[in-house]
Design brief:
Layout: E1 3-9, E2 19-24, E3 30-36, E4 45-50, H1 61-70, E5 74-79, H2 96-108, E6 117-122, H3 124-135, E7 140-146, H4 152-156, H5 168-177, E8 183-188, H6 195-206, H7 210-221, H8 233-236, E9 241-248, H9 253-264, E10 273-281, H10 302-325, E11 336-340, E12 344-348, E13 356-366, E14 370-373, E15 381-387, E16 422-425, E17 433-437, E18 440-447, E19 451-461, E20 467-478, E21 484-488, E22 492-496, E23 501-507, E24 533-539, E25 546-551
C-alpha cells in the first residue's frame, strides 16, 4: 500500500502548571492558549504558536515554560487554528498573521502583562513567529525565529516547479500534519504510485487534506504563494531579530540564511539583526553527538532535553531580556555566532566571515571516482550521466529522517558506485582545511530534455571510507536559462581534517526527498509520462567545471 497509517496523535492534557484559555480571534474562532506565570511580576511575555500540540512531549513547551518562568517571563503557548484543541479550519499559513496579532492583543490586555511581548518558535512555529512579526503589532519588541524561513510557505504549499526543485518531503508533512485537528504518523511509499493517487489514498484513510489539494492545484499555474499580504517581513520588519539556524537542516536552513543575507543588505535596518547557527540538524541533534544514539537525542532522552533547554532557552531568554527588558549583557552581543564542525563556536561582526577562495577543478582523471584537483586538466572532456525517472537516485535517508539528519547520519559511500552519479574526490588532505559560507560550483551542463534538475553534494570522506554529507545544492536548468550552472551550495562552517578527502557528487535526482524530473516539460507533480534524459558536464580546459571553497582561519 502507498499510505499506511501507523499512529494518530490526539491532544495531550494541558500542563497542571498552566491555565488554558480559549482566546477568540477577530472572526470568532477560539484558539486554545496556555498561560504559565512566574512567581512575582512578569518581566514580559514570550509567545509560541505551534501546530504540533502545545502540551505534547514532542514540542516540549511544558518544559520550556518551566525554564522561562524561572527567568521571570510569562510564557504563552497556543495551538494554531485548526490543530489539536483549537477551533477553525485546518489550513497552514493562511491565518497566522491575523491570529498572531489578535493573540498578542489578548496578551497585553491581561492583568499580568506589562505590555511587552517576544515571539519565538521552531520550524512551522518559526513561521508563526515571522507571521506575528509581519502583523506589526506594536507590543512585539523582539523575535527569535528558529530553524525556519520567511518564505517557508512558498515551497511548502506553493509549487513553482519550473524554478525550484519540488520537495516531496513538504507534501509528506502536509498529509500527516495538516489533514485535520489531529497529527498522524504514516508510512508513505512515494514510489508505489502517482502523487495524485497517493494523496487520494491518504484521503480515503484519514480524510481530505485541503493544503495538499490546494498545493497540487497551484502547481498548474505556479503562482507565487505569499501568506503575508502586503506585510511581507522582508519589507516590514523593524524589531530586533535573532536568526537561529542549524547547518544540517537542508529543508529549511537555506531559506533562513537567505533571510539573514537579505536583512544584512539593508542599510537602515541591518543592525537590528543577529545570527546564531549551530552544527546540528533540524531537530537539534548535534554533529559532535553523531554515533551516540538515542541518549543524546532531545526528543527521546530527558537528560539531553534538559541540557538543550538550559542552553538554548537560556540564549533566547538572554535575547529577550536585552531587547524587551533592557537588561544589558555583561559582554556585548556578537553580531554573528556560528559553530565550526570539529572545532567549536566562533563569533564575528559579519557572516559569512572574511575568507580566501580555494579552487578545486573537476577532472576526468579516474574511472568510477574522478579527480577533484588544484590543477585543471589541459583538455576539455564531457562527462555524461543518464537520468532515468523510472529508476532515480535514492535519497540516502528515508523521507522522515531529513528532519533528524545527524541522528540518522548516513554513510553515502555506495552512491559513488552508481553510473547516474558523477563523483569527484581529492587526494587525502595533508593538513586540515576550514571553511565557512557557501561552496560554489560553476560549469556548463548540457541536457537532452527541455529542462533538468541538478543536485550537488559536498561530502567528507573519512580515512576508512565513511562518507558524510556536509552541504547540499539543487537547481532547475532550462532552455530559457541556458546551460551555464552557478550553484551556491548550502551554508556550513566545517573543518575537513587532515587525512580526509573532499568529495563532490553531481546527479539529477534525490528521491523521495525531492520529486523526480519527468524528462519532459510536464508538471513533475502530476505527469505520468516519464522519459530518460542525458546530461553532460564539461571538465578541464579554460572553462571547465570548478568548485570554490571559502576557506577561513580559526583556532586549533
Amino acid at each position: 500500500m502507498s499510505f499506511t497509517l501507523v499512529e494518530t496523535m490526539t491532544p495531550e492534557p494541558p500542563s497542571q502548571h498552566a491555565r488554558e484559555h480559549m482566546v477568540a480571534m477577530r472572526d470568532g474562532v477560539e484558539l486554545a492558549t496556555d498561560v504559565y506565570l512566574p512567581d512575582g511580576t512578569a518581566r514580559s511575555a514570550i509567545l509560541v504558536r505551534t501546530c504540533y500540540d502545545k502540551s505534547s512531549r514532542y514540542t516540549a513547551l511544558t518544559f520550556e515554560a518551566e525554564y522561562y518562568t524561572s527567568r521571570g517571563f510569562a510564557f504563552v503557548a497556543q495551538d494554531v487554528r485548526g490543530k489539536f484543541r483549537s477551533g477553525g479550519e485546518t489550513l497552514p499559513y493562511a491565518h497566522d498573521v491575523a491570529d498572531g496579532y489578535d493573540t498578542v492583543e489578548w496578551i497585553i490586555r491581561q492583568p499580568w502583562s506589562n505590555g511587552r511581548v517576544g515571539v519565538t518558535g521552531q520550524s512551522y512555529y518559526g513561521f508563526t513567529t515571522w507571521a506575528a512579526v509581519a502583523s506589526g503589532h506594536p507590543a512585539i519588541g523582539a523575535a527569535v525565529p528558529m530553524v525556519t524561513g520567511i518564505d517557508m510557505g512558498a515551497g511548502h504549499v506553493g509549487a513553482q516547479w519550473d524554478q525550484q526543485v519540488p520537495y516531496i518531503a513538504g507534501l509528506n508533512d502536509l498529509l500527516q500534519i495538516w489533514t485535520d485537528h489531529h497529527g498522524y504518523l504514516a508510512e508513505i511509499d512515494w514510489s508505489a504510485d502517482s502523487v495524485e493517487n497517493i494523496v487520494a489514498a491518504a484521503r480515503a484513510r484519514i480524510g481530505e487534506c485541503r493544503a495538499a489539494r490546494d498545493m497540487l492545484e497551484r502547481s498548474v499555474d505556479q503562482g507565487w504563494y505569499n501568506p503575508y499580504g502586503d506585510r511581507h517581513p522582508h519589507h516590514t520588519t523593524s524589531i530586533p531579530i535573532l536568526h537561529w539556524q542549524n547547518w544540517y537542516d537542508p529543508g529549511l536552513a537555506p531559506l533562513g540564511l537567505r533571510d539573514w543575507r537579505h536583512f544584512r543588505s539593508l542599510a537602515g535596518q541591518r543592525d537590528l539583526h543577529f545570527l546564531r547557527v549551530g552544527s546540528a540538524d533540524h531537530s537539534g541533534y548535534l554533529l559532535q553527538d553523531v554515533g551516540a544514539g538515542d541518549e543524546r537525542n532531545p526528543y527521546l532522552s530527558e537528560a539531553a532535553l534538559a541540557e538543550k533547554i538550559e542552553t538554548e532557552c537560556g540564549e533566547v531568554a538572554d535575547f529577550f531580556d536585552e531587547h524587551l527588558n533592557g537588561v544589558r549583557p555583561t559582554t556585548p552581543r556578537p553580531r554573528a555566532r556560528w559553530h565550526v564542525g570539529h572545532v567549536g563556536w566562533q563569533s564575528s561582526q559579519e557572516y559569512p566571515p572574511q575568507s580566501e577562495p580555494l579552487t578545486f577543478h573537476l577532472s576526468a582523471q579516474g574511472s568510477e571516482v574522478y579527480g577533484l584537483n588544484r590543477r585543471r586538466d589541459e583538455e576539455t572532456t564531457s562527462l555524461t550521466w543518464t537520468h532515468d525517472p523510472e529508476h532515480p537516485v535514492p535519497s540516502s535517508t528515508d523521507i522522515e529522517a531529513i528532519w533528524y539528519l545527524l541522528a540518522a547520519y548516513p554513510d553515502e559511500r555506495d552512491l559513488a558506485e552508481r553510473a547516474d552519479v558523477l563523483t569527484f574526490r581529492t587526494e587525502p588532505l595533508a593538513e586540515s582545511v576550514d571553511f565557512a559560507g557557501q561552496a560554489v560550483l560553476t560549469g556548463r551542463v548540457s541536457y537532452s530534455a527541455p529542462s533538468t534538475h541538478v543536485f550537488a553534494k559536498l561530502q567528507d570522506v573519512h580515512p576508512d571510507g565513511t562518507t558524510r554529507p556536509i552541504s547540499w545544492g539543487r537547481a532547475v536548468l532550462s532552455e530559457r536559462a541556458g546551460d551555464t550552472l552557478t550553484l551556491a551550495l548550502d551554508d556550513n562552517a566545517y573543518r575537513f581534517r587532515s587525512g580526509h578527502c573532499l568529495q563532490l557528487q553531481i546527479q539529477s535526482s534525490d528521491f523521495p526527498h525531492s520529486a523526480v524530473h519527468p524528462g519532459t516539460d510536464g508538471n513533475p507533480w502530476l505527469t505520468t509520462k516519464l522519459l530518460p534524459s542525458t546530461q553532460s558536464l564539461a571538465v578541464g580546459g579554460i572553462s571547465g567545471a570548478q568548485l570554490v571553497l571559502p576557506t577561513i582561519t580559526v583556532g586549533k
